[in-house]
TrEMBL record:
This is RNA polymerase recycling motor HelD. The keyword ATP-binding applies. It comes from the Bacteria. It holds the Pfam family UvrD-helicase. The lineage of its organism: Bacteria, Bacillati, Bacillota, Bacilli, Lactobacillales.
């Protein structure tokens, strides 16, 4: 830089700083007003609450006058309103506090086509006005802000709710602001300058994910602002910012559809609960509420509270023989979903199984009778209303039985044996009078029968007469008759064994992941449950670990939602699926005109050296472009035995600690992670063993199995035991997933010979 331009920069920086100071002042004024507002609201709340207490005190006994009831209602309404307003003000105050530290991170100078004047705007985390329509800061999600993320200088356009708008862009300036001070600024020609991104990416990892508003890349911006697609399918390399982008997308949607979309209408399915914890701060930091968040397993499991399903580690460590693999593939595919859907239609004519309804140990309404009733309704009925009509009929039958049951022996006996205490309980009032003994007898008999029948009544309403498991079993048994299993490389005997397996597990109150979704789908079909119509956006992260059946089922459960599915077909660690087929199967569920597929190819997480190395692990992977950030070559440490390998780990940890890197030691299995943590302790090294997804990430060194590392990242990763024969050829994607968690430093530990999967990485990509 010449001396002159340096001075110019200095002046310019001072001018920008003065402007920033001015904005901060105004933000502070606004905060002050808001605080006053909050104080008043709190005072009001206190007054209303006190008044509430007075009303309660004024009530005598449990009888409550109409006036009091009305008054309570009015107070409650007021309370709710004030509470809401208090809550909103608090939230806004939180956002302003953050804005105060970094009021804006970018400036745009432009002129709209057809407008006489040039404009200058600043962009920040949220909009800020000091008077009506006078924007000192524009929200990063405002339509105009879009050109900051994807426009070059010159003629550019951006999408507004009314259509495309054209502008000429003269200046795009980025600011690095810390605690209200501009540290540096860059004027960039293209999209977000690499310089700024480099600053951000060079930072350290943490136990919680960070937002990326300041440096959203053009390719990510497309995903974030998409409002058209019914299915937005994002394939992105490890570390390409898929998760980051969708969290920004959720924030964008909540902004764009403010007033019609609430955070409870957005659901995100994530790979495990550890990951949920990892990302939970991103939205609140942008002043938005978190969406509904769960794992697919959790979503299903809550419907079968008494049955335990396969855990992540069981799923991961299951050793499948070839026959099981074929069956697993068959029951996971769309074809199987269709078979089940068609089977559901056949059930409208015959085949649904029921259980006897019992009363006092005897069959009260037999299953055959129930089936007769169920199929007595004409073909215009579907499964759902057929069941409703049956319930109604059964309840009617129950009511009709009351009379005859009242005359039965057990009732007689019970009345005779009633104690005074019990009698009192049965009477409506303590001094209830009857015309004669007969009337009293009848009264008591009815009471007793009704009480006993209440249980049956609720069994009927809760559909206990429907045998869900038998119906599922019937279906499984019918499969060989419906389709030719040999087409899928499955013999009849193998299928029989699969069915037997289901029975055995079910008797043990367990169900496999393969059976779980079809089981619930059949249940939904029979009970006629339609999905959750109110859900507007569904996000599915790590899509490669879902089966097509599961995705089809989710689509059935959220029929009106728009879907964003993201994944890295290079990281299928559960399904080991051929990536392209998954994509085409998913696309088959949606209208092609409403589908958009986006590829993110740049990998931001890791240094160029690490990305080059991990990329070389994949033999036929998706496209990956490293981001040009410099670091060490990955180091591969090969030792003769376990003790030496452990020494290597300890040495590496020391070095990482010195460089202030947080290290994760990632092992293949859960068992190994346990051993490693124990051995570390024997060496006097403290670490946290993450053994279940219900834990939280800890600071300091952690040890965890591969399948829990999904979606996470760490300054440094030590891959424990990439020895020969440790990984099968089809576990390439698993090795890739482990290695690609590293941001700044990757170390591979092996004993004896290095795994074949890593031997093919060219030598120039690592140091030995
Ligand atoms: N535009 C960006 N600006 C700054 N940092 C970014 C950007 N995009 C991604 N990153 C960073 O890159 C890292 C990886 O992002 P993220 O975890 O979202 O990727 P991913 O595609 O979900 O990865 P994976 O599939 O490996 O789990 C994170 O540290 C994230 O903050």
């Amino acid at each position: 830089m010449t001396e002159k331009s340096e001075i110019k920069q200095l002046d310019e920086k001072q001018i920008e700083q003065a402007h920033l100071d001015d904005v901060v002042e105004k933000i502070k004024t606004s905060e002050k007003k808001l605080k006053e507002h909050i104080d008043v609201a709190e005072e009001d709340l206190k007054v209303i609450n006190d008044a509430f207490d007075d009303i309660h005190v004024g009530m005598d006994g449990d009888a409550i006058s109409m006036d009091a009831a009305l008054s309570i209602h009015a107070q409650q309404q007021m309370l709710d309103e004030r509470n809401n307003s208090w809550h909103q003000s608090q939230q806004r105050l939180g956002v302003l506090k953050r804005l105060e530290k970094t009021p804006f991170f970018a400036r745009l100078d432009f002129q709209e086509k057809g407008e006489p004047k040039k404009e200058k705007i600043y962009i920040g985390l949220t909009s800020f006005t000091d008077k009506a329509d006078h924007f000192l800061v524009y929200d990063w999600r405002a339509p105009i802000s879009s050109i900051y993320y994807d426009g070059k200088l010159g003629d550019v356009e951006y999408q507004t709710p009314d259509g495309l708008q054209q502008v000429e862009l003269f200046l795009k300036r980025q600011f690095l602001v810390e605690n209200g001070k501009i540290q540096a600024y860059f004027d960039t020609q293209e999209t977000i300058g690499d310089q700024m991104l480099l600053e951000v990416l060079d930072g350290k990892s943490s136990t919680h994910m960070k937002g990326i508003v300041k440096t959203i890349q053009a390719e990510q911006n497309k995903i974030i602002r998409d409002t058209k697609s019914r299915l937005l399918f994002v394939q992105g390399a490890a570390g390409s910012g898929k998760t980051s982008a969708i969290l920004q997308r959720i924030a964008f949607l909540l902004y764009r559809y403010r007033g019609t979309l609430t955070s409870s209408q957005v659901v995100m399915f994530s790979p495990n609960m550890l990951f949920n914890d990892y990302i939970q701060n991103v939205l609140p930091e942008m002043g938005e509420q978190n969406m509904v968040q769960m794992t697919y397993g959790q979503y299903l499991a809550r419907r079968l509270p008494n049955i335990s399903m396969e855990s992540l580690s069981q799923r991961f460590e299951k050793q499948d023989n070839p026959a099981n693999k074929n069956i697993s593939k068959f029951v996971s595919d769309i074809e199987f979903f269709k078979i089940l859907t068609n089977y559901g239609q056949l059930l409208n004519e015959s085949g649904v199984s029921f259980k006897n309804i019992k009363f006092k140990g005897n069959v009260f309404i037999s299953k055959e009778r129930i089936a007769e009733i169920y199929y007595s309704f004409g073909p215009q009925y579907n499964l759902g209303n057929r069941l409703d009509a049956t319930v109604e009929r059964l309840q009617k039958m129950l009511r009709r039985k009351v009379g005859s049951e009242m005359r039965s022996k057990w009732v007689e006996e019970q009345i005779e044996n009633l104690s005074q205490e019990q009698l009192k309980m049965l009477y409506n009032t303590a001094d209830q009078e009857f015309k004669n003994g007969d009337e009293e007898h009848k009264f008591l008999a009815r009471k007793i029968v009704m009480a006993a029948m209440q249980k049956v009544y609720s069994q009927i309403t809760h559909l206990r007469f429907l045998s869900v498991s038998t119906n599922y079993l019937n279906f499984l048994r019918a499969v060989p008759k419906i389709t030719d299993l040999s087409k899928y490389g499955i013999t009849d005997d193998q299928w029989k064994a699969y069915v037997e397996d289901f029975i055995e597990m079910f008797n043990d109150k367990q169900i496999s992941m393969d059976n779980l979704s079809p089981y619930l789908y059949l249940y939904d079909l029979v009970t006629g449950k339609h999905g959750e119509l109110d859900m507007k956006f569904v996000f599915i992260d790590e899509i490669q670990d879902y089966t097509p059946f599961q995705l089809a089922y989710l689509k059935y459960k959220f029929p009106r939602a728009r879907y964003t599915m993201l994944g890295d077909l290079n990281q299928s660690i559960f399904t080991k699926k051929n990536s392209q087929t998954l994509l085409s199967e998913v696309q088959g569920l949606f209208d092609p005109d409403d589908t958009r597929v986006v590829q993110l190819t740049h990998s931001y997480r890791s240094t160029k050296q690490i990305t080059d190395y991990t990329k070389a692990i994949l033999t036929n992977g998706q496209k990956i472009e490293p981001f040009n950030r410099d670091g060490d070559l990955p180091n591969v440490l090969i030792s003769n035995d376990e003790a030496q390998a452990m020494d290597n780990v300890v040495e590496q940890l020391k070095e990482n600690d010195q460089r202030k890197f947080t290290t994760a030691i990632i092992t293949k299995s859960l068992e190994e992670s346990k051993c490693v943590q124990k051995m570390l302790l024997e060496h006097g090294v403290e670490s946290t063993w993450i053994k279940s997804e219900n834990q939280r990430l800890a600071t300091g060194t952690i040890v965890l199995p591969s399948y829990l590392a999904k979606g996470l990242e760490f300054d440094a990763v030590i891959m424990w035991d990439a020895s020969e024969k440790k990984f099968d050829e089809d576990e390439q994607q698993l090795v890739y997933t482990i290695a690609s968690r590293a941001m700044h430093k990757l170390t591979i530990i092996a004993i004896g010979e290095l795994s074949e999967l890593l031997q093919r990485v060219p030598e120039e990509y690592y140091s030995k």
